[in-house]
Design goal:
By secondary structure, this protein is an all-alpha fold. The chain is built from 4 helices and no strands. The protein starts with a helix and ends in a 5-residue tail after the last helix. The protein has one domain. Helices cover about 40% and strands about 0% of the residues.
Length: about 100
């Protein structure tokens, strides 16, 4: 989806700062749990506070991006992140 939106923005010669993510929101843990489940892996994902994750810079506690500008400019609404992730796992070509 990001590649498609980038092409669409480039074709329209859009400039400026654009937030481009699928719709919905999730923590990093929720994203990991969904990906692990889709991959058929039975490992356990355990949530930890961000203070326990090594980072070079402090991160704000809530960082959901607003794609309203992208939606309005391109005339479309990004699909849910869970749908995009499912398609990536089940429709994307894999190198054998």
């Amino acid at each position: 989806d990001l590649a498609l939106w980038s092409i669409m923005l480039a074709e329209r010669q859009a400039t400026g700062l654009w937030h481009a993510v699928n719709s919905g929101q999730a923590t990093w843990c929720e994203l990991a749990c969904e990906a692990v489940g889709l991959a058929g892996n039975e490992c356990r994902v355990e949530p930890i506070p961000s203070s326990q994750w090594p980072q070079k810079a402090p991160r704000p506690p809530y960082t959901v991006l607003d794609c309203g500008k992208l939606s309005e400019y391109l005339g479309m609404h990004p699909r849910p992140w869970t749908q995009a992730l499912r398609e990536h796992f089940f429709c994307a070509p894999f190198d054998a």
